[in-house]
């Protein structure tokens, strides 16, 4: 049984323009101890999927269908108390903006102590000094300089990289099985990005955590995860072992996405992907990529494809790999 399995998840947003149909039948799974990455363009639904898993979608979101199974139990059907007992200890999320994740009017140490007390189901019985020692040890583990000063600082007194390390320390203090990292290096400079990714890899290896890493930077995920999902316009279009996917992408979108990435070796300017991402207010029927695809057929315009085996353990949501269509 997978640790986490998402089945046919559909999520929409109510807006002043109408109902935006963002997630359209998302499917993914992650085994215990597995490191999985999700890549795709900005706005393709990566963060919405993770927020649905954490049950922290905004108030205008509508879950129209699907299941999110954690250890075989559908968390969408759990009561708030039942789900909180899992969320407090079993998994945690590192958000892409550490400035927004930390309250600016409270000291870092006070915030983390409150979170630890809540995660352990007790608002006052845990000794503050013992919790402080635990937090300081976590700060040292994520290589924060002068952890005592960081503990007594307000978030605005720390650099972006230090705030992100605080968020990583907090996630590792509460996650026992699954860590979700939502573009954890978005607002950091290149040298700090590499440090943060190396740090996450080292810590999850040491603790044997399952990981979901979300990114639109292809190179960032290659050295950290074992398997990749490629996401386009609210749907998963391909999954494969990471090196196999980069070596032999099968879905037309995966090929175009990898081909459009700039390379250090040069070779000219990438052409990019023709066309535009569909409007979620009126998304195309069938495969959502078909208006931009050079290989589309009539069936692509009528019915959304399921996952078809594509060799090497990979799966592709494309009729090019369906035996009946061929």
Which tags fit this structure?
Rossmann fold; 4-stranded antiparallel beta sheet; 326 residues; 12 strands; alpha/beta
Strand order of the largest sheet: 6-7-8-3-9-10-12-11
Q: Compute the gyration radius: what is it?
A: 21 Å
Chain-averaged pLDDT: 88
CATH homologous superfamily descriptor of the domain at 4-90 and 216-321: P-loop containing nucleotide triphosphate hydrolases
Form type? globular
CATH architecture of the domain at 4-90 and 216-321: 3-Layer(aba) Sandwich
Oligomer: single chain
Task: List low-confidence stretches.
Answer: none
Quick gist of this model?
Helix content is 33%, strand content 23%.
Topology record:
Blueprint: E1 4-15, E2 18-30, E3 35-39, H1 46-54, E4 61-70, E5 73-74, H2 80-87, E6 91-94, H3 98-101, H4 108-119, H5 128-141, H6 147-151, H7 160-174, E7 178-182, H8 190-207, E8 210-215, H9 218-222, E9 227-232, E10 235-241, H10 242-247, H11 252-259, H12 298-302, E11 308-309, E12 315-316
Parallel strand pairs: 3-8, 3-9, 6-7, 7-8
Antiparallel strand pairs: 1-2, 1-4, 4-5, 9-10, 10-12, 11-12
Helix pairs in contact: 4-5, 4-7, 5-7, 7-8
Protein described:
This protein is of the alpha/beta class and 326 residues long. The chain has a domain of 193 residues: P-loop containing nucleotide triphosphate hydrolases (Rossmann fold, 3-Layer(aba) Sandwich). Helix content is 33%, strand content 23%. It contains twelve helices and twelve strands. The protein has an eight-stranded mixed sheet, sandwiched between helices. It has a four-stranded antiparallel sheet with strand order 2-1-4-5, with helices on one face. The mean pLDDT is 88.
């Amino acid at each position: 049984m997978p640790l986490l399995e998402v089945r046919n998840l559909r999520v929409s947003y109510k807006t002043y323009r109408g109902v935006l149909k963002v997630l359209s039948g998302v499917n993914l799974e992650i085994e215990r101890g597995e490191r999985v990455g999700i890549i795709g363009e900005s706005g393709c639904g990566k963060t919405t999927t993770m927020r649905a898993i954490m049950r922290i979608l905004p108030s205008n979101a509508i879950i129209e269908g699907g299941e999110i199974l954690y250890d075989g139990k559908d968390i969408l059907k759990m009561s708030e108390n039942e789900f909180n007992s899992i969320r407090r200890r079993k998994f945690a999320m590192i958000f892409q903006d550490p400035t927004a994740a930390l309250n600016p009017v409270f000291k870092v140490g006070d915030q983390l102590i409150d979170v630890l007390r809540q995660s352990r189901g007790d608002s006052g019985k845990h000794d503050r000094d013992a919790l402080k020692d635990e937090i300081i040890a976590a700060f040292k583990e994520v290589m924060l300089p002068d952890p005592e000063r960081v503990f007594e600082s307000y978030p605005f007194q720390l650099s972006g990289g230090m705030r992100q390390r605080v968020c990583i320390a907090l996630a590792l203090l509460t996650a026992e099985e699954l860590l979700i990292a939502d573009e954890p290096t978005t607002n950091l400079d290149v040298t700090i990005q590499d440090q943060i990714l190396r740090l996450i890899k080292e810590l999850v290896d040491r603790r044997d955590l399952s990981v979901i890493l979300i990114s639109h930077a292809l190179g960032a995920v290659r050295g950290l995860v074992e398997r990749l999902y490629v996401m386009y316009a609210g749907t998963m279009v391909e999954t494969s072992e990471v090196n196999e996917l980069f070596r032999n992408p099968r879905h037309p979108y995966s090929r175009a996405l990898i081909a459009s990435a700039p390379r250090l070796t040069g070779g000219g300017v990438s052409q990019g992907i023709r066309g535009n991402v569909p409007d979620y207010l009126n998304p195309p029927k069938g495969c959502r990529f078909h208006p931009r695809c050079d290989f589309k057929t009539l069936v692509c315009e009528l019915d959304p494809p399921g996952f078809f085996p594509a060799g090497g353990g990979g799966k592709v949501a494309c009729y090019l790999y369906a035996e009946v269509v061929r």
